[in-house]
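Before any further analysis, backbone shapes were mapped to integers, which produced the following:

***
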Amino acid sequence: MAIKKNNIKGGKKSNIVPDYCECKIIHDGNSKLLQVFKDEGLKEKYRIDLESHENHIIIISRGKASHGSTPEAGENAIANMILYLNEILDFQDSFTMFLKDFSQLIGKDYSGSKLGINFWDEESGNLTLNLGIINGNSSEIRMRFNIRYPVTVSSDSIVNNINEKIKDTNLTFHMGNHNPPLHFPKEHKMIKALKKSYEDIVGEEAELLSTGGGTYAKLMPNTVAFGALFKGSEDLAHKANEFIEISLLEKCIKIYAKAIYELAK
């Protein structure tokens, strides 16, 4: 059984759970290799479609998109692809070694537990891990992850744990863009002013939240994200047909106007 060449690509942004991944495998016509792709049970399990051509196969895996801060709400098409290929390809080369390493250390785990980074704190909850992009060929495969970690955890702890876990594999880790977590205590005067603005307009107590979602607040001092998703509304961030109802938008405007007044006192 032999693969002459392969390439794989999927995802558009690291902060979105990818809903599509594609892998092209160029082969030598070996019937044993072609036979392994006929397992209908595995194709259904990993949402796989196949296009078979004379000297190559195009494998398509599908998932469900969601925001990278809530990977549990989506289904990762890249993970589906890699796990599928790891199950059906039973020979050993650099590509199948990568499939094995990924399946053992990451797979569909979005908590980071397999990498030893499943941190948690009371202020911000659980760490989240999202594989958003993959691009590669027979020579090299690059993956881009989006990690959102608790405010009481250091980034060094995460990097050190990852490097320790992958040291005996063919995987290497490189730190990309890094924005440290943002946190304001509920007693902060800005938080109090925003809380009052919401309560005065909506007429109910504001529930203070932490979220893994990244905003421009991280790039500006003394700034915090405020709205605009109301309690009970569906979270449509980064999803198809993202929208807000006019009545809720009007309510937002009133709250923001009140907030400007409170903050300017």
In short: The helical segments are 31-36, 40-45, 77-88, 94-105, 155-166, 189-202, 246-264. The two ends are 74 Å apart (CA to CA).
